[in-house]
């Protein structure tokens, strides 16, 4: 028997804020977290802006000084977001959940890039004997999941998904399946990324993926005819997924219900999406069908919406293929990347958080900057301002290099 899965905790560190409250209030106000890039003033960079986390204090977030020394910054973001999510959920291993029934699924597209670069410099200057003994455990991409498990005494299932920009959507989707099928009673799930560095900027920019706009308000323009690329961003998003009866028995606050998951691959190109949107549509359709979507329901779609010319057209086609023209036209859609930038492996989890809050509060966050609609992007992308709308169901899409497509479906919670 398949079990119901609900969300009982949320945590976020993003360019919009370092907790859930500040993130959601900024999102519905249509604020932009993208700004002039800082920290690399001596570098000749091909871009001018990024979505960087601001004012993050790991000690204030609950990490220790030893944690800060031993964790790459991507892992610091993950643990900080997980601390907020677990505090909100009220789950405590060994008290109201058995340690072996609590899992962690936190993914990252790139992992500890900052550590990798720093220790490469150490090696080049001093040789192998100078490399830190912490190099490997700080750099590898599974350590956010591993360190969160240690922090919360989560001895159950543990998985770290690497699927480029779909990483954390896959993490949440796989966590949903594990809880639904009885492999865990709760899973701390999401993603983290901290890859803003001249090395990765050079790689993305030279593949012509990044926006070269100098004005932060003009840099990330999903579905707009003027869009020219995505804006790199960083941070973490974490959700606590819990079996419904377990959550109800302990009186947990339930934010939304997870009800469907779709996963496919373009099998087309290592960076470009399949132009007809068919494989992305398959993932969206699978998630919605599993979630019991019925025509006429009020649907919110948090689009992948990167602001690249190819992605936005292909995703529009995918939505129409998945829903049909009439239902696609009724859906409220937005790209919250217009405000956060593209957080890579953390993007999907943060966008699922926004989707859950949109369902809870009956408000659709906007696609800021969308002033000149692309005729090939012909749906309701909630331009400029948030819109009040009672929502029944939501789906969040993520598309990653390598052709990875993932969609997770949520429902407004009802007993």
Protein architecture, described:
- There is one protein chain.
- The chain is an alpha/beta fold.
- The protein has helices at about 20-30, 65-70, 75-90, 115-125, 135-140, 145-150, 165-180, 200-205, 245-250, 280-290, 310-325, 325-330, 335-340, 345-360, and strands spanning about 5-15, 35, 50, 100-105, 160, 185-195, 235-245, 255-265, 300, 330-335, 365, 385-390, 395-400, 405-410.
- It has a ten-stranded mixed sheet with strand order 5-4-6-7-1-8-14-13-9-10, sandwiched between helices. Strands 2-3 form a two-stranded antiparallel sheet. It has a two-stranded antiparallel sheet with strand order 11-12.
- Helix 3 (about 75-90) runs parallel beside helix 6 and helix 7 (about 165-180) crosses helix 14 (about 345-360).
Summarize this structure as a short list of keywords or feature phrases.
415 residues; 10-stranded mixed beta sheet; single chain; alpha/beta; two-stranded antiparallel ribbon
